[in-house]
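input
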Amino acid sequence: MSYEHVFYLFPLVVGMVLSNTAQATAADEPLVFISAFAAGEEGAIHAYKFNPETGELTQVARTADVEHPFFLAVSPDNRYLYSIHAPGKFSGKDNEFVSAFELEGRTGKLKLLNRQSSLGTASCYLDIDDTGKAVVVANYTTGSVASLPVKADGSLGEAATFVQHQGSSVNPKRQKEPHAHCSVISPDQKYVFAADLGLDKIMAYKLDPQTAKLTPAQQPFVRTIPGAGPRHLTFHPNGKQMYVINELKNSITEFDYDPATGFLTEGQTIDTLPPDFTGVSHCADLKFTPNGRFLYGTNRGHDSLAAYSVDPQGKLSLIEIIPSLGNGPQNLAITADGKYLLCANMPGNNVVVFAIDQQTGKLTAVGEPISIPSPSCIMIR
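output
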């Protein structure tokens, strides 16, 4: 081949390499779905591409016609997204819905498949099992949990199980009745655990993913500290411990988890606020890094993030408490590589990206916060 042929082919080869590199980079960029908790046209699910090199979010799509989408869940195969849908008024007198959407590839666009009743109001949490066949929902105001089967096309069937919680606890303003605040499927897919803020209990149910049915577990519940107000819970990546963030007492409680029986045994409780803080604040969410070394929780009122290190036995030690850079940090998400934490400041109308120091667990804000109305939930896929 002559020099001239090489010279003229070189730009083509370079162009092909750059094009393939760009495509690979684009494919490596996670999709981030963020719900805008609002009525009417402002209620929407926003989709962003996330740059893993810079931490930058770039909006690629916006799906409307989904009001008050307080919480989201994405199927394990990344083909379907499920969202709360509360038309008109959130926590009104009418039951709300769970919407099923099909993801249009990696575009961020969503196609509505169908909606099914959540059988409650102030529907506030969703989870989906690893087979993608069962969705569970928690209803805060009416204090109930429901499970819905997922059909072959990703759409939802009518609820397979409905469980109405009963009782109260010690706080006369917030705990006169049950308030189920989350419904989380255990890592082994055997159980659903529901933190009920109104009862100061973690309720436990056996899960049959094939039928999406729930039945009472052998240990039907464990109590938390009176007045704690358990809100969200999460499992350590090792599957041996479960952690509950207590909205009313501003603390995190660890439970040892026995996969063989589903039993929970209470362990450490640690504060999320500085000891000298005297204002009003309420916890919301907590998330682990994928390697299980660090745990983060949110303080709404103090408007901060509490960072903890986790020892081999699951004990937490406070690293730092830093500003969330917005009012009311509501929800957290951590990237699959454990390098970034995203924080949704719901009344602050922004989402902030923080870089996670891989050695210390400390957080550093990256770039400028993105503006979004009432962000309530972040899902990274």
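quick obs: DSSP finds one helix and 28 strands in the chain.
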